[in-house]
Write a structure and sequence with these properties.
The chain is of the alpha+beta class. It has one domain: Alpha-Beta Plaits. Helix content is about 25%, strand content about 30%. The protein has a four-stranded antiparallel beta sheet with strand order 2-3-1-4. A hairpin with a 6-residue loop joins strand 2 and strand 3. The longest helix is centred in the C-terminal third of the chain and has 11 residues.
Length: about 100
């Protein structure tokens, strides 16, 4: 698996809008496995997301698609600035 961890700074009052935003509302992101979002206890306007894909190739294909770029630009309206991205290979996971 491959994916990204992103640090987001949400505009005041923008969290509900961000929760309603979907990076893949029509299920078109081939190879997508899961997306998680964490709101920080210490700062409710700080959110970390994890997006997982079956492979690096699937992740890159999604990231480079015009449809994803359009959805990304929509998401930016809820944020104070660009997210901080950290891409990488999943080297361990465990499901319960």
């Amino acid at each position: 698996m491959y994916g990204t961890v992103a640090k987001l700074r949400v505009k005041p009052g923008g969290l509900d809008e961000l929760k309603n935003w979907s990076p893949d509302p029509d299920g078109q992101a081939r190879g997508a496995v899961a997306i998680y979002a964490f709101q920080m206890d210490d700062d409710p306007n700080e959110v970390y997301t994890v997006a997982l894909f079956e492979s690096r190739e699937a992740y890159v294909a999604n990231a480079e698609s015009p449809e994803q770029d359009k959805r990304y630009r929509q998401m930016l309206k809820s944020l104070e600035g660009e997210p901080e991205w950290h891409d990488g290979e999943v080297v361990y996971h465990q499901e319960y």
